[in-house]
Amino acid sequence: MKNILSTKKLSTVQKDQLLQQGVCVVDYDAISVTFLDFDVPEVIDNAIFTSQQAVRSFLEKSQGFLSIKNCFCVGQKTKSLLEENGLKVIEIGQNAEELAQNIAKNYKKSDFYYFCGTIRREALPKALKREKISLFEVKTYKTALKTKKFDQKWDGILFFSPSGVASYISENKDQTNTHAFCIGQTTATSAKKHFKSVVVAHTSTIESVLEKTIEAL
């Protein structure tokens, strides 16, 4: 039986999927998220979301009183969450860099509101500002690291964000001689600073990370 650690709580179905393939998982939330108050116009023409947490925070704040005409997002899961709540997605990227390129190419004269967390990468805002595209950043949630020390050796560790990597590493610098399975290239870039073996999921979903883990182990 292989033993892995997930830095995000998994569902019962997801755990069973691993167990059926001979993989035992210990899971915990390596980060915590707190939604923040923010002020924006009641009607927004173009909004950018690079995470599901930003979408959830916006939805909780808006309560039907705020509307967005066009959404631009990263990842299929974020797109699905937006559409499930009646918001129209007109552009999607596999990562922030790809989304920024698409916006710069096709929407250069548009103004954007960027809904993000207090910890966010510079890639997208830098790229858009370089193209002189109007961008208003709105901090909608705060990410905090929930550090935890592990003495057990793992056959693999699942990571779902750069913050998750930072949280794990802060207490387990000596526990990196294993495989790091990452949800996307951004997370993988952070993991490569600490792990020699880094595997990236085909798509930015938990299910894809699990499939890669089963395939590798």
Structure description:
The chain is α/β, with parallel strands linked by helices and 217 residues long. The protein folds into two domains: 2-30 and 147-216, Rossmann fold (3-Layer(aba) Sandwich), CATH 3.40.50; 33-143, 3-Layer(aba) Sandwich (Rossmann fold). Helix content is 35%, strand content 29%. A six-stranded mixed β-sheet has the order 3-8-7-4-5-6. Helix 4 packs parallel to helix 5 (123-130) and helix 6 packs parallel to helix 7 (185-191). The protein starts with a strand and ends with a helix.
Number of domains: 2
What is the CA-based Rg, rounded?
A: 18 Å
Question: Structural class of the helices, strands and pairings?
Answer: alpha/beta
Shape: elongated
Task: Output the helix-strand order.
Answer: EHEEEHEHEHEHEEHEHEH
**pLDDT average, as an integer?**
93
Oligomeric state of shown chains: single chain
How can the largest sheet be summarized?
A: 6 strands, mixed
Under the CATH scheme, the architecture of the largest domain is 3-Layer(aba) Sandwich
Number of strands: 11
Give, in spatial order, the strands making up the sheet with the most strands: 3-8-7-4-5-6
Separation of the first and last Cα atoms: 10 Å
Poorly predicted runs are none
Please give the count of helices.
Answer: 8
Beta-strand share of residues: 25-35%
Name of the CATH class of the largest domain? Alpha Beta
